Amino acid sequence: MDKKEFKTAIEQIPVPKEKVFSAISKGINMEGNRGKAKNKKVLVGVATAAALLGITVTSGFVNPTMNRVLAKTPLLGGIFQEFNDATGVELANQDAVTELNQSLTKSGVTVKLTSAYFDGSVVSITGFVDEDVEKGHNEKGEVSFDVNFEHNKGDHDPWLNGKSNDIKKVENGYNFQWKMNYPYKSFKENSTLPITIHNINGINGEWNFDIPIKQEKNSTLAINQEQGYPEDEVKIRIKEILTAKASSSLIYETVEKYKGDDIYIEKAVDNRGKVYRFENPTYLEESKQEDGYHSTMRREMTKLNSDITSLTFYPRLSVADPKVQQLLDKKTFTLRSARFNLGLQVNEVTQKGEKLVIDYQLTGLPKNLSKGKLETINHNLKYLFWLVDKEYVAKVDPENPWPPKNHGIPFNKVKMIDKEAAHFQSTFDLNGEERIENFKLENTMLLFDFSSFVPSKDLKPFTVELPVENK
Prior knowledge:
The chain has helices at 3-11, 17-29, 40-52, 64-70, 78-82, 86-93, 371-384, and strands at 98-106, 109-119, 122-130, 145-149, 164-170, 173-181, 190-200, 203-214, 219-229, 234-243, 248-256, 262-270, 275-289, 292-301, 310-318, 324-327, 333-336, 343-352, 355-363, 385-389, 408-409, 413-418, 423-429, 444-448, 457-458, 462-465. By secondary structure, the chain is mainly beta.
């Protein structure tokens, strides 16, 4: 989950629980982006949202709809019941899941892959790892895989974007399920997916598998209808809906004037009142053109009913604001948002041994902020300041923005001084896990992100008429 999804999750706190569960689901599904430290704050924020609502989230929850389906589920569907995977249950009923029996033992740990399915835009793999995995570094009951697909390496593996993991303790070991968004624009009906597990719980081994993944051809419903929002300088073009055995996928394009702005479709409702939900996107194409920044994405959705005539989409706009920066060769200064009437007045920068203290006030915030909003601001401020060695600012990867190791500090401890005046202090640990070697104020750049103070905006819903072949 990125910063924008975090903002959406936080803003859901005072609204009905259904929306917070949706935000929590997005956070869990993004767990597969291992190594991308910017996601740390997302999980904290989502957990806070659940706690404030008094929601208990348990991995054993099974919804009533699934319970009704299970009465006719074959034995293979039991693993999908275990992971609350309604798509897997339905595919098992249709005999559309590939049973596997591939097993390897390395470094005393046995991994067995048990099933695979490919439906719509999602690939699922289930398996079992024996209890010898507990000899690794993790706490008992925790299992983590360092895994790549198609011989890719590290975090640049496209199969890891949005990958989710689920683990269940069973007799003599653990069952697991991986779910991945199919990362490519075009589909292959039958192919082989190479898998390499490099280590499990820190136990090195190189477990290698070749998994067949099969999918019958999706049916395609071409739509190609556009909705513009001139005031916000964005557009949405609904291109097509693909439908497989148990799920559908929406393909749409967005156009934004400002790089980093994001249009997120929260739901769709058909002419009969059925609500369709969407999962995390797979980006198929991105480009800068004369009219703005174009992104084409594919998102799994609830299976489309075949007898409906229209869909109404409910989009939401999250805006980006470029980070502002200031060299810390001054004790006081003012920073201003590039797009909004927001400011940061730094009153004093003080180094006290291994601590750096910045005293500041936020300007341009709405009057009479609620206690909940102030708590959210206080929480966000821990992550909105970066200290970066000025020689390394240009080396921050825009695709995975994070200060270079040993040349940046992305966290701070926040103290609220005066609520009415939005007066705070942030303290940076100069000798912490994240640090700047040979720290000197005059060589350090302060970067600040105003985006989290700009709430996401609900855009006007719009309706598309479906082609006659769907009637």
